[in-house]
Amino acid sequence: MTDTEPGHPLRIAVVCLGNICRSPMADVVLEQKLDDAGLSDEVRVDSAGTGGWHRGEPMDPRAAAVLTEHGYDPTRHRAQQITSEWFADHDLILTMDASNYDDVAALARTPSDRAKIAMFRSYDPVATPGDDEVPDPWYGGPEGFEHVLGLIERTADAIVAHAPQLVRELTQ
Questions:
Q1: Where along the chain do its domains lie?
Q2: What confidence score (pLDDT) does residue 2 get?
Q3: Best CA proximity match to 92, nearest among 153, 162, 22, 157
Q4: Around Cβ 63, how many Cβ atoms within 10 Å?
Q5: Cβ atoms within 10 A of the Cβ of 6, count?
Q6: pLDDT of residue 16
Q7: Looking at the predicted structure, is the pLDDT value of residue 4 above 80?
Q8: Distances from the Cα of 16 to the Cαs of 4, 35, 120, in angstroms?
Q9: What beta strand segments (E) does 1-120 contain?
Q10: Beta bridge partners of 12
Q11: Collapsing DSSP states into helix, strand and coil, what is residue 37?
């Protein structure tokens, strides 16, 4: 399923629309939780948006503030846009909502590329078929960013718990 050689780190990309709210929050949280679990050498995380409007920009200040309040460091993020080349560089591409999923799937060139795409919350132990998206907090207030962080933290914990299995499955 991967274009890497066995023994290379698992490479995960998290993707939302503009890469300034949800996916960078997931990137920062997931990287921190992998590092805390001693797995940062085995799993690498990137984030991107399906659109390029914010390319090179830092994270939305509201997203950064919520992360900072919860002990995460959002300062290194710069928005980037996913392209079809990302499939060769990543083993798993996790999208924040169905629209992002469809946009990423449209970039896939092969069945192998499409097999790398999943919804981020497909790892969330409490997600259900009608409730499997990370909602976009862009148009709301701080409570929306708090809600999104809660979803991301819970899902990131589950990804970290499954990381050793994912490494074996996707990089061997």
A1: 10-171
A2: 42
A3: 162
A4: 25
A5: 8
A6: 98
A7: no
A8: 24, 23, 10
A9: 10-16, 43-49, 92-95, 117-119
A10: 45, 92
A11: coil
Catalytic residues: 16, 22, 136
User: Phi, psi (5° rounding) for residue 142?
Assistant: -60, -30
Query: For 104-148, what is each residue's pLDDT tens digit?
Result: 999 999 999 999 999 999 999 999 999 999 999 999 999 999 999
Q: Is 137 helix (H, G, I), strand (E, B) or coil?
A: coil
Question: 104, 93 in Cβ contact below 8 A?
Answer: yes
For 57-74, what is the mean pLDDT?
Answer: 98
pLDDT at residue 5 above 60?
no
Q: Label residues 82-105 b or e (16+ Cβ within 10 Å = b).
A: beeebbeebbbbbbbbeebbebbe
- Please give the Cα distance from 118 to 105 (Å, whole number): 10
Return the structure tokens found at 6: 């066995």
Alpha carbon distance 58, 74 (integer Å): 9
Name the fold adopted by 10-171. Answer: Rossmann fold (3.40.50)
Model pLDDT, residue 3? 46
